[in-house]
Amino acid sequence: MAIVDFQLPGDADLTLEQLQEMATRQQEQIQQQQQLLVAKEQRLAFLKQQEMRHQQLTGENERLRRLRERVEGQELKLKKLRSMRGEANEYSSSNTSLST
Fold it and tell me: N or C: which end of the chain has fewer CB atoms below 10 A?
């Protein structure tokens, strides 16, 4: 391999071999940074997916809470209606016994 000198500003002389080594190190650093970036992008995608699931569950839990409240309200109305029907039946029985 021929030794070729390159003149850099400030009188810094580097051989072709040194420049190739520098380029190789820089390429390795770029590859490491790309791998790190890919890993971070994957982590971000995972976290976004988890956030979406959490929001869906939160929405589902809220919907279930509202349904429970409606069911409880309907059960209270039904209980009142049954109580009123029982009273009406008592009045009817009472009126029947009075008229006989």
Answer: C
Q: Which residue has 């850099």 as its token pair?
A: 8
Take residue 41 and report the two structure tokens written for it: 């992008």
How far is it, in rounded angstroms, from Cα 40 to Cα 34? 10
Radius of gyration, alpha carbons of the chain:
41
CA distance 65 to 55: 15
Question: Bridge partners of 5?
Answer: 15
For residue 82, which phi and psi values (nearest 5 degrees)? -65, -40
pTM for this prediction: 0.54
What span, in angstroms and rounded, lies between the C-alpha atoms of 51 and 27? 36
7 pLDDT more than 90: no
Alpha-carbon span 73 to 57, nearest angstrom: 24
* CB contact at 8 A, 33 and 40: no
